[in-house]
Structures are given as structure tokens and as C-alpha cells.
Amino acid sequence: MESVNPVLWETKVLQSKATEDFFRNGVHLPLFTLQLPHSLHQTLQSSTASLLIPAGKTLPTFTTAELGTSNSSANFTFPGYPVHVPAGVTLQTASGYLYKVNVPIMVTQTSGRASILQHPFQQVFQQLGQPSIIQTSIPQLNPWCLQATTEKSQRMETVLQQPVVLRSGTVDRKRLENATGDTLLHPGSQHKIMSEALLSQPENSQYISLSGVVVPPQLSQMDSNVEPVLSVSASMTQNLHGGPLSTGPQGAQHQHTPDVQLRVLKNRMCGCDSVKQPRNTEEPSSLPISKKDSNSQMDLSLQVTDDDINEIIQIDGTGDTASNDEIGSTRDVDENKFLGITDAGDLKVLEEASSISNEDSMANSSDNEDPQVDLVEEDPLNSGDDVSEQDVPDLFDTDNVIVCQYDKIHRSKNKWKFYLKDGIMCFGGRDYVFAKAVGDAEW
Amino acid sequence: MDADSDVALDILITNVVCVFRTRCHLNLRKIALEGANVIYKRDVGKVLMKLRKPRITATIWSSGKIICTGATSEEEAKFGARRLARSLQKLGFQVIFTDFKVVNVLAVCNMPFEIRLPEFTKNNRPHASYEPELHPAVCYRIKSLRATLQIFSTGSITVTGPNVKAVAAAVEQVYPFVFESRKEIL
């Protein structure tokens, strides 16, 4: 049996070139939920192929009240791309990130692995001046932002792992030129803080660190105040938001590892609550605290993908009952057996369900027969001297692997017929690709 | 001459069906992923596991009930069932081999003569039923043994019963009647 290596065939699938891109990139679900303002609700139309959001929203000035409140009149998910998102729409991903779209965007799904990600991490700090100044600078950056958006559309998890290249050295300079005050850029979800910061602390020097691309397919964009791309990275800035930061501390932060900034970014993106922390603290020392939060958050989110893949709970069998008369006596034993099952993880749900059904019979049978009536418990099975190991467990330990999809698998007695399609074969050390394959086998 | 039972009639057991319970819930998905030689029928909620050594096919339900078919003797059926339970145990389930019961035995037997079915049916009214338009064999039921025989005009008889003994007894019981209605070659 395969008990020696229970998931050997799974590792083979993972290693195969057919699934090279699929598993490595983490979450494969291009699902996201759009939370749209009320005004758009009735006009929404969704199709499986693409989603077109009618453009009718002006650039709103969000306040703290607006954010996080009942924008969600329309929540829907759709599986496909491309998505055309007009300006002024708040998007929320399935994992809970909020992004505010300020310019019209067309989101398309790329192959999943952008070469951009391979580039070394770059930090760009930008000084953000007064809101007015910032707004004027928007048009300049828009084209760049849009570009970055489409190119960088990736899944969030991959983003976290691979810092994005900030392509604009030129942009940096521009920013620096424009900035006069010290305000911090925030990611779209944090725009309220942003506005506060802008309003209250025009003196703050604002830096935009593009530590990581958190551009989900929806693209996250900054508030009206900041370019969309900047919002992506603004994670770092979030921390800085708290107080007037001199270039000194910021410079120090500058030195932080990309990972830290990524985490911070994640933290910022995640929820409003976390945002409040740095906001209150006026010192760079708030950074470590918030980072810790983000660390845990990031870890959680990253693990989600693995769990999604592996954790498929069995839903059948919960209502199964014994059909013979000895249900009563056996229930006692069943209860114990349930608890003793090694595969506790998967069966916890079932255990609860079945224990409910067992309750009644338990009460009744407790007086009745003893578990011994269970009969001839038959000698323990590990008198499995006769029970041989059967097939060699290394049945799957071969280098000739086919990873494909199937049209039909047919069996008559011990004669098998395979009608396969779209596959990659590794045979004799060489790789072959096929669109159709037919096979015969005898078991 | 006449009712010479057991004229060295070889009764061949072709199939023995048995059931047993594992007294523990089985995670079908785990069996399907990690077990060898399994077919997962998710739509009906069972896993088929085929064994080579005693050639048997076992249908496994998540409740722990297992039906084992394809064995050629009762001994073999039990042997195969135990082996199956052992393999499940190796997958990690707390399996206990209980409630083993042979449910059905199928055997074939060949008479050295041909049989006149309409005549046979007339002589064995309550037990025999014959509908040539539906099925070419006479269906002869023995209630006491809970056995059913299908008698063909070629002399071939198929017997199904709860165990091997009942099957053998059924053949012995039927033989004289069949012998009466045989087609004698002149």
C-alpha cells in the first residue's frame, strides 16, 4: 500500500512541469468581492466573462465615516476577467483587503508570474505635499500607474513574497520635487487616515515606499490624493503616518528589510483597526508593534492558501447508520472508536454529527447488552502474518509520469481504457506533450 | 440409475459474497488518495478496492460496512476480507474485523444430460416457474434452503444460496426431478 509515502503521487503531480505555475503561485482563485456604493447597485450587470462597472462615480472625498461603513450594497463575486472598473469604486478582495479605485482601470489576469517581481526591491520615498499639490501631480503619474496596474496584476500572496520593482526612478524625483510637506501616503483602504494626515500634518514628509506589490487583480489605488501605485506600497508609510517624521527616522526605516515593509503593507491593507495603532502613536517606535501584527496577519493569509488546497472536508457519510439490529450494543463501541481514530482532523466534524445521532441509542443501549456481544471480536488483525505487504509500495516511485486531464476512464473487469487529453509526459527522461492520448491496460 | 445423487457432479463455486464491519468510521477520501488499487465512486459514496491475491473486489462505505465479492470459496472470502481489513488498518484506521458473514454463494453445475423444461415445470409446479419469453431458464426456488436454481435446457444449472452447504443441498434436492425430465438421446 501507499502507506509508506501516502502522497507520493501528489508530489509527482506537484513536481511535474504541467503544474509548474499552478501550485507555486499560491492561491489560484481569482475571486474577489466588489463592494460598490449604493448608486451603482442597480446598474450592475455581471457576466461570466467580464464585468463592466458603469462609470458614474466622481472622485469622492472619503471621510472616516464613509470608510468601512455600509458601502456594500452590492456584493458579488465573479470568476472571470477582464474587469473594467470605473473611478471611485471601493473594492474588497475575498481576503478582506480594501482598495479604493480612483482612476478607471481595466484589470486583466496575467499568466500569474510577472517578470517584474524578480527585480530587486526598490524603495521609493516620496514627499507628499499639500493635497492640492498632490492632486496636481496625479495626472502625471496616472499613465504609469495604470501601466503598473495591469502589469502587476497578480495574486496577493505572490505579491507578498516578491517585491515589486518600482519602475520610476523618474517618478521618484518628481515626487520629491513636488513634496513640500510631510504627509504620508496611505493605501486606499486607509485613506481616511490619509486625509487626516494630510489635513492635520501638512508638514510631514511623506515617503512612498513601494515595498511590495499588493496589487491584486483589482488593483489598489490610492485615495484621491495619491497615485494608485503609490498606495500599493504605502504600507510603510502607514507607520510613519503617526507623527511628524524627520528624514532621520524615515531614513532608518528605509533600511528595513523588504520583508518588514511587506508585512507592514499587509498590515495596513488588512484592516482599519490596525491602522489606528500607528495613527495614535507619534513615534517611529510604533513600527515594531505594528509590524508584529502584520507578521501574524501575513502568516495567516499565506497559510490560507495551503489549507484551501489540502483541507477538503468529507461531507458524506455523516448520516450513515448500521442497518442490523445490534445498533444498540454497538453504539457504545462506536463512540469510543470515533475518538480513537487517528485521522482526528478530518473526522472532527463527522464526529460531532454522528455523536448527535448516537445520543439516543446510547441512552437506550447502555442498559442492554454489553459490548462483548459484539461477538467474536475475531482475533486481532495484526495476526497479519498471513496478510502480506501485497504490492510493492514503490509502485509510484517511477520517473515516467503523465500529468494530464482525462476525458474518460473505462474499466471492464480488469481491462482498463484511458482516454486522456492535454498532458505532459515525462518518459525515459524526455518530455512529451500531447493533446490526446489513448491507453489500454490490464490490471 | 434413477436418482443417483452426487454422480460425481462437480459443483463449481464461482462467486462468494460476504460482508463485514470495521466498527469504525472510514474516511473514504483518505482511502481513495492513499490506498492502492482503489476506485472512488464519489457520487454514490463508496470506494472499491480490488485485491489481487484472492481476487476480490470490496465495496467500502464510510460507515465501515464492507461488502466483499469475487472469492471462489468461503475460506478465501474470509481470507480476503481479513487482508482487506488489514490494509485499511495500515492506512491508519482503527479497524476491527467483526460481523463477518457470507451472504451469497453462486455456483454452477453441469448435468450430463439435457432437460425438457416445459415438462419439468409441469411436474414441479409450486417451486418451478418458467417464462420462456422472458428468460430461457426455469427458476426453481427451495424455500427451506433459501436457494434459487436456474435450470437450463442444456443441463447447466446455476445455484445461488446463502452458503456453500445450502447450495450443495439444493443441487442434491433438485437432481432427481431434473433427472426425471431429462432428454434422453435415443
Automatic annotation (TrEMBL), chain A:
- Keyword Nucleus in annotation: yes
Entry's Gene Ontology BP terms: transcription initiation at RNA polymerase II promoter
Residues of the region (Disordered) are 238-257, 273-297, 355-392
* Ranges of compositional bias, category Polar residues: 355-366
Q: Where in the cell is it found?
A: Nucleus
Q: Where is the composition biased (Acidic residues)?
A: 367-392
For this entry, the protein name equals Ral transcription factor IIA subunit 1 like
The organism is: Monodon monoceros (Narwhal)
Q: Which gene encodes it?
A: GTF2A1L
UniProtKB/TrEMBL annotation, chain B:
Name the record gives this protein = TATA box-binding protein-like 1
- Assembly description: Binds TFIIA and TFIIB.
What GO cellular component is one of the record's annotations?
cytoplasm
- Per its UniProt record, what InterPro entries does this chain match? TBP, TBP-like, TBP_dom_sf
Q: Which residues cross the membrane?
A: none
Which GO molecular function entries does the Swiss-Prot or TrEMBL record give?
RNA polymerase II core promoter sequence-specific DNA binding; RNA polymerase II general transcription initiation factor activity
Pfam families linked to this entry: TBP
Q: Is the Transcription regulation keyword given for this protein? A: yes
Localization terms from the record: Cytoplasm; Nucleus
Family, per the entry? Belongs to the TBP family.
What this chain does, per the entry, is described as: Part of a specialized transcription system that mediates the transcription of most ribosomal proteins through the 5'-TCT-3' motif which is a core promoter element at these genes. Seems to also mediate the transcription of NF1. Does not bind the TATA box.
GO terms in the biological process aspect are:
acrosome assembly; DNA-templated transcription initiation; dTTP biosynthetic process; spermatid nucleus differentiation
Instruction: Give the main location.
Output: cytoplasm
Its keywords, alphabetically, are:
Cytoplasm, DNA-binding, Nucleus, Transcription, Transcription regulation
